[in-house]
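I am still getting used to backbone structure tokens and would like to learn alongside you. Please make up or recall a protein chain and show it to me in full. Would you write everything just below, so we can both look at the same thing?
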Amino acid sequence: PKVRLHIFDSGGNDPDPKKMYGTVSEAAVSGFRDLERSSQTTPKGSEVELVYLHIPLPQYGALDPVVGRNGLFEAALQAKKVPNPWAFVPWVVRLLRKHRIVGCSRGPDSGLFDALTEAKGQGSDIRAVFCGHDHHSDAIFVRSEIYLAYGRCGSTTPPFDWEGQAPNPLAPGSRVLQVSGGGRVKTWVQTPEGLEAGTLFPLDPSGRESKALNPQPLGPLVFLVVAILLALGASGFRV
């Protein structure tokens, strides 16, 4: 099978602290759209298309992994970078599902993900996006039938654990992709010891949706409210 790689420059640290990080330029997104239009003579689905960039897209956020770990919130908590009062009640952040954060630009959306979904809707096999940047994460998510994946940090130099502020539970390694006949793609994390158990995952064309795209049950929140009411009742408090 043919494989087309789209490699984007996502920039670096932004001088504006409110934006934090850079993102893909409008010109690059426009160029991608032009390239997809010029490829309309190529039989749709005959090429697997993979996207690479360093800084994750904002669409990685607020999703549950289908495999792997999103560890940015836990790392920020260890490094004392979570603002108060949330640093004192991280369980509330997790309960409200606000811990599913990614180190993306806080500036205007580049529009790249919209361009990818448009191309996929027109028949292109936009299979997956791969990024790095968040060293404590190796998760794979799915949004709009496109896999959004992290690699695995391969370094043991200081940034691997935020200069010692947040020990990294992930072993240094790399994400491997294998493309075979019929457009089959599978990926896994390889460490010096070999294929890491539990990381082998097929990136099938249908794109299995992340659980976070479905309405979330209110069970945990209801349980919390009931527990508080019971505690208040036991103490003699009356509303």
